[in-house]
Amino acid sequence: MQPDTAVIFCAGLGERMRPLSLSTPKPLLPLAGQPILAHTMARLRDAGVEKVIANAFHLADQVESFFAQYDNVTVLREDRLLDTGGALAAMEAQGVLPDVPFYILNGDSYWVDGPSAALPRLAAAFDTAREDATLLLARSAGTIAETRYGDFMWSREGELRRRLEREVAPYLYSGIQIATKTLLHGAAVESFSMNRLWDEALAEGRLNAIIHDGVWLHMTTPADIERAEELLAAREVGNST
Q1: SS3 at position 7
Q2: Domain MobA-like NTP transferase: where (predicted)?
């Protein structure tokens, strides 16, 4: 089943994107002639998403103003920064999350689809009987940006796991996943990262992943945006349409 709901995290401070993020929320920074969020909304529409839930904190007026052009978006303002896990718990506490699977995206996510569109691939791979979430992972080697040490190890003969302290992982979280409310395990509304929820799901064998078959552009620093603009302008990795 293709999800008809998506959550977009838009509340973060974007500290590594400063000075750009001091006056503009990171998800609203321009890329290929549009705010990053505009590209995301177009991808969600193409995937059949009819309802979007977003949070806002840093420069929240700008986030709300952007989403005002859409009639299918609910924006929840945070009175304190809750991080990704806390934001999801707050949405559940307010009763806005569906009982069926939904997409979760970071507001700065930008990707170019490969042979198959990423969001439908996630939906097709997700098995609610066995999983609380399925992540879209990107290959570190093909990522356009500084990737540091990566996030996940995953041998084809083994299970998905976190990288250990001295390991360099071949996979990064792309900022895109599909999940159900069971991922929260009744978490309280407090500030915490989605990483905590993933670790709990990993411990129970209920976290899965697929590998992105296109290109993922890591939007962390101003240099990342400059590089992405150059690549997109040169049509080396396609474009957003």
Answers
A1: strand
A2: 6-135
Residue 196 has pLDDT above 60, yes or no: yes
Q: Cα separation of 153 and 93, whole Å? A: 33
pLDDT of residue 103: 98
Instruction: Report the amino acid identity of residue 217.
Output: L
Cα separation values, 119 from 29, 138, 139, 185, 186, Å: 23, 14, 17, 24, 26
For residue 239, tell me if it sits in a domain.
no
For strands 73-77 and 161-162, give the pairing: unpaired
> DSSP secondary-structure letter at 163?
P
102: DSSP letter: E
CATH number of domain containing 49: 3.90.550.10
Q: pLDDT-based confidence at 162, cuts 50/70/90? A: low
Instruction: Supply the range of the domain harboring residue 148.
Output: 5-233
